[in-house]
Design brief:
Blueprint lengths: L2 H26 L3 H7 L3 H27 L4 E2 L60 E3 L6 E4 L3 E2 L25 E5 L6 E10 L2 E6 L7 E6 L4 E6 L10 E3 L12 E3 L10 E4 L3 E3 L1 E7 L13 H10 L5 E5 L4 E12 L4 E4 L7 E2 L7 E2 L5 E4 L10 H10 L3 E2 L5 H14 L5 E6 L9 E2 L33 E8 L2 E8 L6 E6 L3
Parallel strand pairs: 1-4, 3-18, 22-26
Antiparallel strand pairs: 2-3, 5-6, 5-12, 6-7, 7-8, 8-9, 9-10, 10-11, 13-17, 14-16, 15-16, 15-17, 19-20, 20-26, 21-26, 22-23, 22-24, 24-25
Length: about 500
């Protein structure tokens, strides 16, 4: 096609387009809407024409902002371990402490122990230790923490956990699901909470190639934890028993041998998160001990040395050999006989913070009546679990004025049910009840108890007709009063308490 022919063709098309536009204009030029539009200011017409473009740009900007704001939400699949945002308050409204102001002799999670976890000279929420979600410390003088008020991003799949481990259905949630026994001579190893129960408490079984031969179980009559053959679970017999009155087998440190009651020196039951049995760590050694490997008699002694040594993040203890301290762990080996590895401390962080719908006593104690749990009532052990799930514990260590105040609150708003509290005859003192967390005796002042004449039956051992008794709030002719019943009876709901900060 010649240049002249192409030019003529384009001119013809432009003419046809012009004619088409003119035709459309003639057909609408007398329409009311066209007359209104044609009389508008041309600048306004330009703004209307550009509106779709502006909206498109705005949508793009919002998408970019949302993407970059991901730092202010936490990925629940990782428990917020990769969160690097600037949120600095807990869900209960407490201000976070700066990580660089913590005391490593008080706080178990510090910058030198978790150097690659986003900690530093700031007070932003983080999760260095595989907790269920991002958190921060709230008290400079205590190992207290609270979870942060962060929205989930990515998967919102709920992660139900105990203090450090994973909950499993049909198991006892009031204690850690995994514990490690060390220095017991015959019962060392990793124990896991099973679906078996004895005397109202869950039973731990040692993981021996999926064959359970040794168990840790609760003896309800004598109020002791026993470790021994699974065929003896729930009985007053076995390898050893915990002397202290502990709600869980790791809530004490004095174990005595079954049969002769001799002290089991160095025996320890601890949470699996802080000690790994038959596990060897490898990595970079603490510089002070590269050429001078210390020796300790027990794994606990090795752990204590690690806790006292700056930059020590983990240890491996070899029986009758040495204590190796690491400032970086790069590898782990399992099934290594006569070794124990772990973190610098087994001390647990203490969850604090009052729930949003809590009540406060006159002395400023945070409490909550769990009105929507346990149906018509549950056992005292199940009530302990329910409080644990909400970050609290059964109301405990209450003074006389606090008890009277709580009885008044219960009588005014919660007299439709009975309520378990954290007192029992755990100390085995005849006719006396004590608060389990503090061991302090419960006040027996007149007007607090429904009937004190039955107290003579509590605290006794060796009588098959006497079982472990726990305290609850019940109805009486004069209102709500303290009472006691077998801890396994399903008669009451949980009255929970929370540490404020």
């Amino acid at each position: 096609m010649s240049g002249q022919t192409l030019t003529e063709t384009l001119a013809s098309k432009r003419s046809a387009l012009r004619e088409r536009i003119d035709t459309i204009h003639r057909s609408v030029q007398y329409e009311p809407w066209f007359i209104k539009v044609s009389t508008l200011d041309r600048r306004l017409l330009l703004a209307i024409a550009l509106l779709p473009v502006v909206l498109f740009i705005l949508i793009i900007v919002l998408i970019v902002v949302a993407a970059t704001a991901g730092g202010e939400c936490q990925n629940m699949r990782t428990g917020g371990a990769d969160y690097r945002g600037t949120h600095d308050r807990t869900r209960s409204g407490l201000q976070c402490l700066p990580w660089n102001t913590l005391d490593r002799n008080i706080h178990t999670v510090t910058i030198d122990r978790y150097p690659e976890s986003g900690l530093g000279e700031h007070n932003f929420c983080r999760n260095p230790d595989r907790s269920p979600q991002a958190w921060c410390y709230t008290n400079k003088n205590k190992n207290n923490f609270d979870y942060c008020d962060l929205q989930p991003c990515g998967s919102t799949e709920p992660i139900a956990r105990a203090l450090t481990g994973q909950f499993r259905a049909n198991t006892d949630w009031s204690c850690e699901p995994r514990v490690t026994v060390v220095n017991s001579v015959r019962a060392d190893g990793l124990y896991m909470m099973t679906e078996q129960w004895a005397n109202g408490r869950g039973v731990y079984a040692r993981k021996d190639n999926d064959i359970h031969t040794l168990c840790i179980s609760w003896h309800g009559l004598y109020r002791h934890w026993w470790m021994g053959p699974c065929t003896h679970m729930g009985m007053n017999a076995g390898v050893g028993w915990l002397e202290e009155d502990g709600m869980c087998p790791y809530d004490g440190s004095v174990w005595r041998a079954g049969g002769n009651d001799k002290l089991m020196k160095g025996a320890l039951v601890t949470t699996n998160s802080c000690m790994d049995f038959e596990t060897e760590y490898n990595g970079t050694l603490v510089s002070d001990y590269k050429n001078n490997v210390p020796r300790t008699d027990t794994a606990l002694g090795c752990q204590t040395l690690c806790q006292q040594t700056k930059t020590c993040v983990a240890f491996t203890w070899y029986k009758m050999r040495n204590c190796t301290l690491f400032n970086t762990v790069t590898d782990t080996k399992h099934n290594i006989k006569f070794t124990v590895s772990g973190q610098p401390s087994c001390a647990e962080k203490v969850k604090v913070g009052c729930p949003l719908d809590h009540l406060k006593t006159k002395s400023n104690i945070c409490i909550k009546f769990l009105d929507m749990t346990c149906g018509q009532g549950c056992s005292r052990y199940a009530a302990m679990e329910e409080c644990e799930k909400t970050g609290g514990f059964l109301a405990d260590s209450l003074e006389e004025n606090d008890i009277r105040n709580i009885l008044e609150i219960a009588g005014n708003k919660y007299n439709h049910s009975f309520w378990w509290v954290g007192a029992s005859d755990m100390r085995k003192l005849g006719g006396k009840f004590s608060w389990e967390r503090s061991q302090v005796l419960v006040s027996d002042m007149p007007g607090l108890w429904r009937n004190t004449s039955t107290h003579a039956e509590v605290g006794r051992q060796g009588d098959n007709n006497t079982l472990h008794e726990c305290v609850f709030i019940s109805h009486s002719g004069g209102g709500m009063r303290l009472d006691h019943q077998n801890c396994q009876d399903t008669i009451a709901r949980p009255l929970c308490q929370y540490i404020a900060s």
